[in-house]
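New to this. Please check both lines:
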Amino acid sequence: AGKWHQGAAEIATPYARGFQKAFYLQDGGASHFADAAGQTSTAPVATYYDEGTQVSALPENFYSSEFYVNKVMDYLDQRESDDARPFFGYLAFTAPHWPLQVPDAWLDRFAGVYDEGWETIRANRIESAKVLGLIPEDASIPPFPAALGSWSDLDAEQRQKEARRMELYAAMIAYMDAQLGRLVA
């Protein structure tokens, strides 16, 4: 279940690759909600398939990460209890691909966390990794990528916009992780 993005040819479908059940987004990305908005003007509506049939409308409460996990859980529940054959499930989240969207309850989950800027956050994370023993204490911080520019070079509006992007990205990852937790629990 999830993002497939292997092409539209019959030979590229999950069924041609050995899957018996599949709910998938054929495109590279889309809205994470029921509107199924595509990412380009040439593909204004995302192409989803369920069990080989193109989906005309997604459920009203659709959010990609949750729905994909629900599908995989349904597939597991549909197995016969005495079926000893191995089961291979493939779950490909579209999160945190653009657009940056999360359910309303998660919109402010990371509010303010990224306000200090990417350079400070990066340095703090490296120091935390040293304290945890994940990297050597004498490890030096590699040069910051010049292409990203300095946080201090951004004006207040740009900093606010970039901090918000990081908040939403983090919320998408956390929500995805929570959904994956439901599957493995």
The helical segments are 64-77, 118-131, 156-184. The longest helix spans residues 156-184.
